[in-house]
Amino acid sequence: MNEPLLSVESLSVTFATRHGSHTAVSDVSFALSAGETLGVVGESGSGKSLTMLSLLQLLPNGARAQATRARLGEYDLLDLPRSDLDRIRGREIAIVFQDPLTALNPVVSIGRQIIEVLRHHFKLDKAQARIRAIELLARVGISDPVLRLRQYPHEFSGGMRQRVTIAMALAGEPRILIADEPTTALDVTVQAQIVSLIAGLLEHTRMGVIWVTHDLALLARIADRVMVMFAGRIMESASCEELFARPQHPYTRALLANLRESAAAPGATADPAPQGCPFSTRCAWVMDTCRARMPPVGRAAHGGQVACWALNP
Amino acid sequence: MKNLWERLLHTDSARRGLIMLLIMIGVACAAPLIAPASPDHVDPGARLLAPLSRSEADAGHPRGALHVLGTDSVGRDTLSRLIYGSRLSLMVGFAAMLLGAVIGTLVGVLSGFFGGAVEAVTGWLIDVQLSFPFLLLAMFLLGASGGGELALVCVLALATWVNYARIVRSQVLSIRNQGYVEAARALGAGVPRLIFVHILPNTLTPLFVVASFSMAQAILTEASLSFIGLGLDPSLPSWGTMLNDGRDYLLSAWWISTMPGLAIGFTVMAVLMLGEGMREVLDPRSSP
């Protein structure tokens, strides 16, 4: 394996509130190589989106990210001068957001929005940028791109808008594409189209992809590696085949059982224990140690990693 | 934008307002062509003539000049002064609206976008402006600067910028948290691009409405300042100065003040109708 594109070690995100600080993400480490697709799965509030936003310094006000290491090539992502930040956003790392209905400016034509991104990252004149924009729209499967370029977001359907946002994300030819639940807001048939579109676009590139979702079944189709998050921590990570074949962590097992039987996972929503393992309130294997201390991330039987006292005593 | 125009033209009040305003602008532009006499032509023999009367016959006018709207205390033709006055009144109103819009929008955008200290300072500025009696401020500034069109425009802009600043600020506060602003930021857009491409165009529509109401306000304020003798040079033909000229003759020669008053009413109504129509079109609940 060559040097990873992106490597993150011990990332944490904390919110400063009136009642003291609240840790939303803690001790998250992962690496991404060129051409690899990393799936990040977790329920709402598990910190998966915050982790991604922190890499581009897009955290909401009051949130702070810290890490012992967050490197992308020569850049230290959490300590960037302003000028580098504008260069990295969209050019090195691009994000496709969840809701295509709000991700496009309603009063600016599609063409202008794409051209703005192109001209920000490359030295192009208007005509060249326009040609590139038409190519991009064609690449994401929008028919009649010359006409569509002049249209406004309200003239596009949800799926078409998501194609446009993908075109905008690809405009900077980023090395890493973060897809933050890009299909959640779309209906099922369109979801499948968008997934195969992105998969098709990636086939011949060396782009690294981080796909954030709460849909484990989706990751089974597209991911090389899967990272399972719960309450801001990594519970388990492994190659895609291993994770589905031999899930280790009780949370992952519950998720997979859930998929097969479409039954509710035991316990309510994430209500993490104040200390110890956040899953201990819902875990079938819970022991006294779990409630006292958070288990470290250790090696797992399937070659990946897992954080569980029952598996790594 | 094209769609906006079409819908605007299909709104009764906006269409009427627009037509009335275009008539006024046409009159102002064509003043030298349509005015029957020079606005400054003094005819001592034709003082305080009632509307539709004729002056004494002279060499230029064998049957005497017809004064459709009468003459003032020094024999100047009221209609001609009214026509020329529209130039100054419209221009001052428009310039004041533009200046107020630029200042107010700038303050509103900065305050809404950056928040924190910038917002505190601008909020403080707005409060100071609002807590000061405007007429007092206008008298002080016009007195200190010696008056003139430029000073008047500045003072009028001072009276209206707060309207823009407040509405733009509230717009920006909601727009800056929209998905597309974050998405643009995530793709590398810097602050100027965020403001000019993504935020400002979204504030334009309510801004148009405020602008039309502010222009009406500016025209009225100009007239009242000129009426109390603080606005424009009294010898210049403007509606406000004409009102002032006729003050002493309200009972004996009513037309001197009444005619510019009607012109002001007409113009303000045109602008307000346009603004009302815009509000109707731009209100999402009323869209078809």
Structure description:
By secondary structure, chain A is of the alpha/beta class. Helix content of chain A is 33%, strand content 23%. Chain A is built from eleven helices and 13 strands. Chain A has helices spanning 48-55, 82-88, 110-121, 126-139, 145-148, 158-171, 188-202, 216-222, 240-245, 250-261, 288-292; strands spanning 6-17, 20-32, 37-41, 63-66, 69-72, 75-76, 93-96, 176-180, 208-213, 225-230, 233-239, 298-299, 305-306. In chain A, the strands form two sheets. An eight-stranded mixed β-sheet of chain A has the order 7-8-9-3-10-11-13-12, sandwiched between helices. In chain A, strands 1, 2, 4, 5 and 6 form a five-stranded antiparallel β-sheet that branches. Chain A starts with 5 loop residues before the first strand and ends in a 7-residue tail after the last strand. The mean pLDDT of chain A is 87. Helix content of chain B is 70%, strand content 1%. Chain B has helices at 2-9, 12-29, 31-34, 78-114, 116-131, 134-145, 149-175, 179-186, 191-227, 239-245, 255-282, and strands at residues 53-54, 66-67. Chain B has a single domain (2-286), classed as MetI-like (MetI-like fold, Orthogonal Bundle). Chain B starts with a helix and ends in a 6-residue tail after the last helix. Chain B has a two-stranded antiparallel sheet with strand order 1-2. Chain B is built from eleven helices and two strands; from the N terminus they run H-H-H-E-E-H-H-H-H-H-H-H-H.
